[in-house]
Automatic annotation (TrEMBL), chain A:
Annotated ranges, domain ABC transmembrane type-1: 90-302
Topology versus the membrane: Multi-pass membrane protein
GO biological process, one term: transmembrane transport
Subcellular localization(s) per the UniProt record: Cell membrane
Main location as per UniProt: membrane
Similarity field: Belongs to the binding-protein-dependent transport system permease family.
Keywords: Cell membrane, Membrane, Transmembrane, Transmembrane helix, Transport
Keyword Transmembrane listed: yes
Protein name: Sugar ABC transporter permease
GO cellular component term, pick one: plasma membrane
Transmembrane segments annotated in the record for this chain: 34-61, 94-115, 127-147, 179-200, 221-243, 281-301
KW Transport (keyword) present: yes
Species this chain originates from: Mesorhizobium hawassense
InterPro entries cross-referenced by the UniProt entry: ABC_transporter_permease (IPR051393), MetI-like (IPR000515), MetI-like_sf (IPR035906)
TrEMBL record, chain B:
Domain ABC transmembrane type-1: from-to ranges: 78-269
Alphabetic keyword roster: Cell membrane, Membrane, Transmembrane, Transmembrane helix, Transport
Source organism of this protein record: Mesorhizobium hawassense
Protein name (database record): Carbohydrate ABC transporter permease
Superkingdom, taxonomy of origin: Bacteria
Family to which the UniProt record says this protein belongs: Belongs to the binding-protein-dependent transport system permease family.
Length: 309, 284
């Protein structure tokens, strides 16, 4: 049953049959297809498509919860880009993406390669690394908030043990963002690891064996076999890591509330503050559209880059 | 094949030793915070801040758990999270599986467009939607309800994507044979397709439940009373402000209670995880 679902032969057979049938569309199939799709499409239109369009629309309007909406052109965008707090939020979020993106991809791959080996104990270590995935963000924040405590936290205790001066971490504007980055890597690198693991397990063993026979060392095998075959997984992992980086919020909200001195104040917290504490829906929607544009630009740039390599 | 893999891995004694050293380091770095959370939650007040930190409590006690459940509406938050998690998972599975079937196995006009639009939402930062969603639900008086926490999050692109891959792998001959025997499309879907793709359904179930259980930002906006508040939002109120005076043992007890359901769910179904992701086709 399982082999049926994952076996490549079964899949290509299905695809072939599918292609053959392409010309002769049986009557009633279109109706049936849309009947099956209708619940999803209804939810999708109501809670995804329309809200996306509405967000863009609201970003061009003055809209307080009570008053009548009014079209004001680009005023909301002018307002947020004149707001030092929004600019700080963009800068901080970019810094967070910068701090997390490379470690998340490199460490994710390194962990996957370490745990892909046929050694005793890899299954256990995989489970340990994956466990933080099931921990909710409030709990992650509560736990790491204490681990990073200057006086009673474990991090400083062990750093002191190896001769490093205690750091104030979450209370020090220079260290607060690195602390959030470390927390995030601990919490979410496992998703990247699991995607890489799935990809690694799909590389035929014969390729490595043939290369070894031809005299390729481990490093050459990694560069000329593993890396090229991992490219689709690499593209996915990089895109998800960067997009999720721009969307960071919960950790910062629970651990530092954006502080100290707004050093961890991020774009999504700006949206939250503007919309749901100041009730200025227009500027909040505009900030959301800016977030969308940023992630779009980064995704497109990353796709171009992956193609170029 | 499997044996050859072991050759590559453990060719030299040196390489194998290095791998084991790294595995110990990784286990320590990822396991220690979780262990510390468990250990602290059963420490009496006098031992919480002991120096040097003790990994084994001298006098283990459950008093932190007692204090947690006494002082906060933990049971209500817990129940809300469970209801929301289960409803969201069932709804997502049903809707996504129904949608994935025609996308995977039928030829019809609009198929490519629909696929493209659904998968484009992978790249969508959902935070964009929260302002209009809140305003929309608010105008129907649906904010702070179970509805607002379940239905809007159930059109899940990831589930459709994953199930489409699984459904495509089921041989066409099976469907032809079933139709020959007088089976309707829905009959095939329900009685043959779904039972054959249980690993895919399990993977979607795990991801959906964990995502729902841990969802933070939307419930933070969409709830404003303990009656509907879910665990992540409730727990966030323990820190910051009033929570600053909270004992670490109580905070860690809250962490253990919040993590237990997803940890059990995950450990029970984890063997499906890699298999499920392997089948998505991102493997290249």
């Amino acid at each position: 049953m399982t082999s049926l679902a994952t076996e490549p032969a079964g899949r290509s057979r299905a695809r072939r049959a599918f292609a053959q049938e392409g010309g002769a569309v049986r009557s009633g199939m279109t109706l049936a297809a849309y009947l099956f799709l209708s619940p999803y499409l209804a939810l999708f239109i109501a809670f995804m498509l329309l809200p996306t369009l509405a967000a863009v629309g609201i970003s061009f309007m003055r809209w307080d919860i009570l008053g009548t909406p009014e079209f004001i052109g680009l005023d909301n965008y002018r307002q947020i880009f004149a707001d030092p707090l929004f600019l700080t939020a963009i800068k901080n979020t970019f810094y967070f993406v910068f701090l997390t993106a490379i470690p998340m991809v490199v460490l994710g791959l390194a962990l996957a390669m370490l745990l892909d080996q046929k050694l005793k104990g890899t299954a256990f270590v995989r489970t340990v690394v994956f466990l933080p995935y099931v921990v909710m963000v409030s709990t992650v924040g509560i736990l790491w908030g204490w681990l990073f405590d200057k006086g009673t936290g474990l991090v400083n205790y062990y750093l002191t043990a190896i001769g490093i001066e205690p750091i104030a971490w979450l209370k020090d504007p220079h260290w607060s963002m690195p602390a959030l980055a470390i927390t995030t890597i601990w919490w979410t690198v496992n998703t990247n690891m699991i995607i890489f693991l799935a990809a690694l397990q799909d590389i035929p063993e014969e390729l490595h064996d043939a290369a070894t026979l031809d005299g390729a060392g481990p490093w050459q095998r990694f560069v000329y076999i593993t890396l090229p075959l991992l490219r689709p997984a690499m593209a996915l992992v990089t895109a998800l890591t960067i997009i999720n980086g721009w969307r960071v919020f919960g950790q910062a909200y629970v651990m530092t509330q954006g502080g100290p001195e707004a050093s961890t104040f991020v774009i999504v917290q700006y949206i939250y503050l503007t919309a749901f504490q100041n009730f200025e829906m227009g500027p909040a929607a505009a900030a959301g559209v800016v977030l969308l544009l940023i992630t779009l630009v980064f995704s497109l740039a990353q796709m171009k880059l992956m193609k170029a390599i | 094949m499997q044996d050859q893999r072991s050759n590559r891995a453990g060719r030299s004694l040196g390489g194998r030793s290095l791998a084991y050293v790294l595995m110990v380091v990784v286990t320590a770095l990822w396991g220690a915070p979780i262990l510390w959370m468990l250990v602290t939650s059963i420490k009496p007040e006098s031992e919480i801040y002991a120096y040097p930190p003790a990994w084994i409590p001298d006098h283990p006690t459950l008093e932190a758990y007692g204090a947690l459940f006494q002082r906060f509406p933990m049971l209500t938050w817990f129940r809300n999270s469970a209801v929301v998690g289960i409803l969201t998972t069932v709804l997502t599975l049903a809707v996504d599986a129904l949608a994935a079937y025609p996308l995977a196995r039928m030829q019809f006009p609009g198929r490519r467009v629909i696929m493209g639009v659904i998968f484009a939402t992978f790249l969508l930062p959902y935070e964009l939607l929260f302002v209009p969603l809140f305003l929309g639900l608010n105008s129907y008086g649906l904010v702070d309800s179970i509805f607002s926490l379940t239905v809007p999050t159930s059109a899940n692109a990831f589930g459709v994507f994953l199930l489409t891959q699984f459904f495509q792998a089921v041989p066409r001959e099976l469907e032809d044979a079933a139709v020959m025997d007088g089976c309707s499309r829905f009959g095939f879907f329900w009685r043959i397709l779904l039972p054959l793709t249980k690993p895919g359904l399990a993977t979607v179930a795990i991801f959906t439940f964990v995502a729902s259980w841990n969802n933070f930002f939307w419930p933070l906006i969409a709830t404003n009373s303990d009656e509907t508040r879910t665990l992540p939002v409730g727990l966030a109120t323990l820190v910051g402000g009033a929570g600053m005076s909270m004992k670490q043992s109580v905070l860690m007890a809250s962490a253990v209670v919040a993590t237990l359901p997803t940890a059990i769910f995950f450990l029970a179904l984890q063997r499906h995880f890699v298999r499920g992701i392997a089948a998505t086709g991102i493997k290249g």
